[in-house]
Amino acid sequence: MKTNFLQEMQKRGYLNQCTNLDGLSEICNKNPISGYIGFDCTASSLHVGSLLQIMILKLMQKYGHRPIVLLGGGTTLIGDPSGKDTTRKMLLNDEIKKNIDSIKKVFNKILDTTNKNTSPIFVNNAEWLTKLKYIDFLRDIGSHFTINKMLTFDSVKLRLDREQSLSYMEFNYMILQAYDFYELFKNNKCILQIGGSDQWGNIVNGVDLIRRKLKKEAFGVTSPLITLASGAKMGKTEKGAIWLNEEEFSPYDYWQFWRNTDDRDVKRFINFFTEIDVDETENIFKKEKNINNLKILLANEATKILHGEESAKKAEQTAKETFQGSGLSDNLPEIKIKSIEIKSGISILDFVSSNKIISSKSEARRIIANKGLKINDILIDNEKKILQLNDFKNNVLKLSYGKKKHYLVKII
Fold it and tell me: Which residue from 41, 61, 212, 215 has the highest number of Cβ atoms inside 10 Å of its Cβ?
């Protein structure tokens, strides 16, 4: 490959498949291109499982290309069946609009919006999908798709193999995604669609549709789906998803997520989720043998990209104060409690389960029995413990779950 953009994609491990790698490389080498990734808006925030895709858009900007962020106001009304055993929850238009407004905040933080040549273009496919006339769409677009081929795609085949129902509404999703690419090619000169490897079939459909309808070549690229060395799914923890919006997941918790990376994943994740040069990463790993220092490097660099350098430094300092002694940093995640509640006393089991610190009361009992819960660095040895005013110092106490999760509980 001649183009620096695709070379770095490959070096970082972003590149899985391409419809025509030589052709795309040649075009990228001659002129800046536009490429898009679609994101359905089923929640108010994307989670860290979407971060690799956003990093690819950021890499496009580095080499002078323009990213297009498609926020699927239209396709979210349907729901992508890929990787799902059941139909997604149906959302109303107002809910989707709120989700789009919230999700855009993350792109505006991670991507460069100051360069007029590479600043991201945001599009909402509701603009064209909600205006389609059904009969015209079937004649003009549906005629280019065969049921035979659609049944071979994983998003359909796996669902049917598991004897899980697939609605006609969901079955149409892949046609709508292909049509998105067709619209962006026509109106935004977008020649490239990027997605996870589970989107390969849908992307190829778009490339084929453009070739059939417009007699022109478009390109598709996929990135690998990330699995952890442990075999777990990227971004899932016992507390739920690792959200990218600060309102859903604090910068400190985000930093801790990366700091707690499995030793076996650290090098790969530095290449995936930081802007450290790949060759520099090799040098760092040759010189630094302390894996914990490398995890801190990953946490700082990944947090800096999303939340800024100041938040990354603050999170590192908070961790030092918390873990190197009995520190009580003001930057720990906070749980606020009303004074009237604490006066009558609160069961520790009720408190940790209702605030989602621990998933259930039975799990909390097990953790207390295994000496895993502390108040102000003192072990709780009684599952019937009642939180009272005398547990607080200046209306604050530190609650610790295991070695790595700490919270400030404040009376308001």
Answer: 41
Give pLDDT, residue 123. 97
| 76 and 25 housed in the same domain | yes
Does residue 154 carry a pLDDT above 90? no
* 339-389: pLDDT as tens digits: 888 888 889 999 999 888 898 999 999 999 998 999 888 899 899 999 988
- Residue 192 in 3-state DSSP? strand
In a domain, residue 204? The reply is yes
Last residue in a domain, options 284, 302, 323: 323
What pLDDT score was predicted for residue 1?
Answer: 45
Of the candidates 393, 391, 358, 354, the residue with the CA atom closest to the CA atom of residue 237? 358
Contact 209, 144 (CB under 8 A): yes
Confidence of residue 194 (pLDDT cuts 50, 70, 90): very high
The C-alpha atoms of residue 341 and residue 356 are separated, in whole angstroms, by 18
Range of the domain at 349: 334-411
Residue 250 has pLDDT above 60, yes or no: yes
User: Is 205 among the domain residues?
Assistant: yes
Sign of the alpha-carbon dihedral angle for 58, 59, 64, 65: negative
Residues 144 and 289 in one domain: no
- We report the CATH number of the domain holding residue 360 as 3.10.290.10
The pTM (predicted TM-score) of the whole model is 0.79
